[in-house]
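Weekly structure sync - notes
Attendees: PM, LS, DV (DV joined late)
Agenda: review two folding runs queued last week.

Item 1: First target. Sequence and structure tokens pasted below for the record.
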Amino acid sequence: MPRRTPRTALDRLRTPRRTPKFLKTASICVLIAGLLSPAAAATAQAATGAAEAAASNDYCGGRCSDILPPGENGNATLAQILLNQAFGTQPAHAEDQLGPYANLATGYSTLTDAKINNFFNDASFGVPSDQVASTEKPAGRGDVTIVRDKKTGVPHITGTTRYGTEFGAGYAAAEDRLWLMDVFRHVGRGQLTSFAGGAAANQGLEQEFWRNAPYTEADLQAQIDNAVAAAGDRGKQALADVNAYLAGVNAYIDASDSGRYFPGEYVLTGHKDSITNAGTIEHFKVTDLVALASVIGALFGSGGGGEVNNAISLLAAQSKYGVEEGTKVWESFRERNDPEAVLTVHDGESFPYATRPSSPQGEALPETGSVTQEPLVYDRTGSAATSSATSASKTAATTALTSAKRGMSNALVVSGRYTASGHPIAVFGPQTGYFAPQLLMLQEIQGPGISARGASFAGLSMYVELGRGQDYSWSATTSGQDIIDTYAVELCQDDYHYLYHGTCTAMDKVEQKNSWSPTTADSTPAGSYTMRVWRTKYGPVEYRATVGGKKVAYTTLRSSYLHEADSIIGFQMLNDPDYVKGPKDFQSAVQHINYTFNWFYADSQHTAYYNSGDNPVRASGVDAEFPVWAQAAYEWRNWDPATNTADYTLPSQHPNSVDQDYYISWNNKQARDYTAAPWGEGSVHRGNLLEDRVRKLIAAGGVTRSSLAKAMADAALADLRAEDVLPKLLKVVNSSTVTDPTAAAAVSKLQAWVTAGAKRTETSAGSKTYADADAIRILDAWWPLLVKAEFQPGLGSDLYTAFGDNLPIDESPSAAHGPTGSHAGSSFQYGWWSYVDKDIRAVLGESVQGPLAQKYCGGGSLSACRDTLISTLKQAAGMTASQVYPGDDQCSAGDQWCADSIVQRTLGGIKHGRISWQNRPTFQQVVEYTSHR
């Protein structure tokens, strides 16, 4: 029997009383009205068996906490979905972590250590006997027990055998995320629309990921075979763990199918019949997990790309200014190694990578105007040919090909030298967006060779991927260093043959044909298309152009291409208490993870950091910023195209550190001379919001868990532009008396907001109205106007536009950006705030390290710059809230709070209410270990 029942009383954050759309936008489709047929409510499984005692292997002393909204339960029966849509009722544990998470935004100012678990979960090992909600032996096995706690319903899996432990992990994962797991194995295979419906958002989602990982079934299997073979005994153990995990998943599929308590989305999308139970939920297989991993790796751990866009903007700069000056201008905007950039490793150590060569070799820059993007979608029919479908395809291509990957995630780690207890403290976690159900799930796993609690991506939860061990915790942020290069392959014979080491070689055509018809969940009319990718030994074709009169295809080669499965070994090590006993062991473990991540560690005595990823060793003289010729002289050192392996930089060459005074990361620059692929790592970065606050704590000493959590929460409400750039803009404006009444009123409001702390926060909890609302509206309207007026006259429209393609102008909370569009929480990662900061300081005559090549605001004249700022400020002040916040599928025009608000984007049938904006990790830990083994 299923273990959950719908609640009889609505939560405070309940769904509005209406039948809204679901499975929508970054996800699947629509639940239409008229579905409310009688359905039997599920009955809860009673708690049985002995209660799990407090764990003896827990060295955190009750000082480990975590949170993952909206809730642990991500599965819902058809009856539960219908009740949610009609009345707003929530299945048990579907959103009980959303309220505490949301409340931190207004409750952090009075936070104390004693109050931390008002906003977080107790992440201690085990479940106290009086807190056991249920105990089960999955599939009747005697070697594993799943205990769920009353507060959150998190599964605590304890096995007496390795196989049983992993079987239980798979069973619990399917209990909590089966539908989501099914969705993403189809996303990874480029088959989402055929599985879940042809909504335009579904089309865009499968196209975005399949473009960069167009794997065949043979490719997926080869990844497994190669990963296992390369890792010796650990590889064999990983495969055994995966097979046991899959057996658990499939056992739950069979049990829920025969018991008819499987996720209701299978009925709504036409895969199961609610009356006869006809239809099939396909079992999972090993290659499904590789498909899942390819999605997660592409979304969060594949830094690089963008070389073609870089080339286009360089050519535009050289066209505007001439080759020498244009290159100088381009480099100043690129900020490869800006001396004013905030650093994670700030002790002065240098880690050169992807630096600018003194004499670039092999560059293959396109002829101006010759670049065309390679089509992905062919043979559109029906709803695949609509304007919304083609628009979704365009957005997906842009997202897939940019270097501005949405990294998200942050970390604050302080050495015990500066804490009240003398033990290190960490507040860290990944920002993985907001979904319902969430992409991550919580669990505790205890068994032979495994002892951990934390978060894992659904379907990949054979190990905890971010969390804690017995006496240590770890977390990650996306790093973005460049592991993707673009090669210009010279064409021969026709558009589908290319020269490989002098031989005309056929490209490999890989296709995925998808079709769909309307279902209850998705009423999108029938349609179909074919996705087609041309693959070369240098990776998939992404663009075509001419270089020096020769026709070429631009391909992208990623070091993790065909290697998404390899990272399983690193995660296995992190879960192994016999492997990780200190910071060096931790660093050794994460060296086995080929995703581009920053990893952080804390135990009772030490802190540590390591930047992971397979960084290819490039040929001498190759500039990673631009396309190079696909010739042997410019390939990665010892590159083998058959396996896509090469020489990689040594672990010691990756940014790393042990026991630095503190670490901060918000996807900022890792260390001196370590160039990342995204633009924008300059003088103002959202990492500064953490840096400034943690430095103040360090200076004062006596840091506590609550004070570090408060620093994070305070930064989470800060408007980066207002805190770090607006004071300098106002300094220019106020360099003479402001006589215009409209401008003067705007300046007064903006100054008052800065003085109050420059936060985007409610007047009181639940008011849904911002304090300083007018000032926020003015800055939101002013920023794009002032940037354009400041830079376009000097750069010219072509170069201004090209630089905008390299780095977006703005990323306010209400902007549509990232993998989930608007309402995604994460903000201020990419924007022109560093450019504005450096330029305005230069115009003011202040010292600027790493300045822009020229002064732009007012042509360098303070008075002219002031006129530009005042003119655009007046224009912004005159814009109404409805103009600044035009409304969308979630919000009415002019609703400022709603425009910023966070939405749990529906990936299934259960919907949740909006919460106030915070710029913080989705899953988050607050930890301080009191002892060590």
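Item 2: Second target, run right after the first with the same settings.
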Amino acid sequence: MVHTRVEFKVLGPLAAVADGRDLPLGGPKQRTLLAMLLVNANTAVSGERLCDAVWGAAPPASAQANIRSYAAALRKVLSPGAGAGPGQGPGEDRLSQGNGGYRLQVFPGEVDLHRFEVLAARGRTALAAGEHRAAADALKEALDLWRGGPFEGVAHHDALLGEVARLEEARLAAFEDHAEARLALGEPRELVGPLRAETARYPLRESLWAKLMTAQYRSHQPGDALQSYALARAALRDELGIDPGDELRRLHHAILTRDPELGAPPAPAQPARLADAWQPTVQVPSDDSDFTGRGRLLERVAALIGPSVGRPGSTTPCAVPVVILTGLPGVGKTALATRLAHHLRGDFPDGRLFLHLDGTRGPQRTPGAILANLLLSLGVPGPSIPEATEERAALYRSLLADRKVLVLLDDARDEAQIRMLLPGTPGSAALVTSRARLAGLTDAHLIDVDPFDDEEAQDLLRRIVGPQRLAAEPEATGRILAACAGLPLALRVAAARLASRPDWQVRRLADRLADERGVLAELTVGDLAVRACVAAGYHGLSPDAARAFRAIGLLPAPQFPGWALSAALLDPAAGAGHERAADRATDALIDANLVQVESLGGQGQPRYRMHDLLHAYAAERAHAEEPESWRRAAVARVLDGWLARVRAAGDQLIRRGTGGHAPGAAGDLVGWLESERTSLVTAVGFAAGGGYGPQTAGLAAALEDVCHLRNWWDEWEQVARAALDRAAADGDPVAVAVAQGSLARARAVRGRVDDALTRYAGAIAQLDALGEEHHAARLRIHRSFAIADRGMAELAHDDAVSAAAVTNRLGDKHGHVMALRSLGFALSCQGRDAEAVAALEPAVATAERLGHPLALADVLQLLAWAETGRGRAERAARHLHRALAEYRALRHRPGEAYALLALGRMHAEPGDPGQAAWALAPLGEAAAIFTELGERRGEALTALWLGITHAALGATGRAASELTAALSGFRSLRMPFWAGRARRELDGLRRSAGR
């Protein structure tokens, strides 16, 4: 992968520099988005979090769409090589979007903040070792990276305020460390000015005053030092009502008495001398030779856990650094901790202890028993080990006092198991791995270890299997990577199986892993097994949490909204107590790292994710431990929940209804539908495959209008085909015909009219034979609209008249509106515009009474088209502006484009150059939307009217080009009515040119 190096600057005004030039980062909101992505570099950030960062508590209704626009603009700036053509080499796409959100990829050394953190950590390490010159140089280099306040000029909402405060504190800590190093080198005079400036900015920070007073005294300015103390005391009294602390008062006294020890730098620090009985102890396991990835994580933990972090006077909240590595089973916590222990061997020369605590296997080991074994390993004779656990802990900590020892506690069960195993004095540190989050250790740094990204996963496979073998079968390699889903244990097992069978093709293992029900059986080699690793965590769950785990295995996908798990677990008749039990079970799964919170919706409703392989194991356990009746009832409740929500969303969004379980306020419905788009389609396929006929048919019907509104063409076909397959398998002829009709409508929308007509004909005939006149009328409405301008206006007229009669007789007011709309379109296509107006005007009145905005907009657009045909431009314009407003409120892009097309046609139709000039803007907008949507019919119609417009303006060359494109489009779409119009316009243009 070729990537252009970009230098990101956040320690001051936000900037990005590539090839020596500043990159254009856009406006304030786009810059805030970049800042948030840089704070979370190489990590996916949800759209909701980005909206919070950009707008705070009051994002606009278009926030998610705006975020996508800002991200697209940044992608163009930061990834100039992305999408390079043949021969140009692959380009990087730094800013990617997936299910988890937006992820900005940065490489080592590209962000000034990361360089600052590395240099500051290096300086602190040197300072603790007494290497003052090295410390001063490293810390000065770190401080020189600052060009102002962090993220200067970027709007700070709550999401960024905490990071800004953290960075400012880190800068101050590095500044104080630098001052300490320079004082130790006997260079006080150069510090006085900078220290004065910092005390002016932070007058309540006593440690800064102490360094200023020391620097002034050693620069032979005792009066200034005493004046500084007076200023510090006044600031503390005025602001906080307190006197200076002990350290500052002692320093003041030393200056008053001219204490000789104050007038010279302290003696260089001497390394601690070990007691004669102490022997450095190294217990950590051997490092993996094929360890890969985790570079940023290694740097981060090393910076947190190094001995200098816990020295006296540190700004770290705990004197002894404690880092907890937590994550799901098999994610590589122990391998990472082991690599760190080897990496930090120079920082902990007195020993690196390793204790495997069996937190997820067998009976829990007590702290007392663990301490006894630990003391024995440290050379304490058995008879000398105290009986009381507290006394054993005291002895253990006394042995570690004043020494530099790293204690690695692997697979901890809970906080109580390890509290007494933590060192008690600075210099030592503890590194803990646990599947539990151990949130009760409030002073510890909790680090989530995530699955590998694609590059890390491929690298591990290459290291074990060999790059040539994998390169020979890239498709099969990709399937293995997908099956393992970034889980290091699964990748290691798969790689080991391939390495042990050089006679196998890579495809052979990929094929075996393709069966979700058997994937865990395949991911076993020797004593490595994904199933055993996951099972250990599962068997430690409470009964309620274990059932919740199994219920997740029944859900259509590993990503799911919180309500879906509650629906699976809870019968509707269950009370509030059961609901609270479900919440507690979910919390237990999160604490055990078997489920992660993926995001929070706009209403604060959580979405969760379970790793794919854990989901497969959960499904195994559900089928093994739960009766079929419970499983089917649970799945049915989840599918019914999806159905209720989609119906409510469609009712509120398309028809402005008031009932149902709507997922949020009306302004949030489009965002909700888009966020659940994949889940909804997956749910339909899952219902169809699982034999849930009523839910499949219900979801397909509810999603039909939603797919039409949101331009989900691919999803529409998938849903309709799934419903068709389920209905055929169930032998339900009505459901088969309805699904065929939905599929026909989806095909017609995409221009596949011949296939659509075949399906319409079969479905309508079947419904007529079954006496299902209402369903048949609905399909006639859609067929009429699809064929009216394709040379079949007479059949379209007959369909619409028949449907209008049925819907009127059955009292289906919305259906009647749509039938009149199809009738108006058919009449207009026959050149009977006055009759079209007469049919459409009552439909407008009915749609207004019903409060159905989409139906109203559709009818108004066609009414305007007919009025234009009658030469009544003023009425047409009024109707079109109303239609445009409704379409835009619904964010219905095809409707908006067709209304713009109609507006352009209205200006272009008379052929007057003065009027025609007004057509270019709406037609240009329509063309852009149709191109974006891939709507070929709209593209051809827009080209026709652009050609007519340019002809009226005298631009014959441009007119001919547009009309030729329109003619080609109409012919390929088999639209003879419009192809004839384009042919006539071209002929007229050529005759005019001949004259």
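Discussion on item 2: The first strand starts at residue 7 and ends at 9.
Action: LS to circulate a short write-up before next sync.
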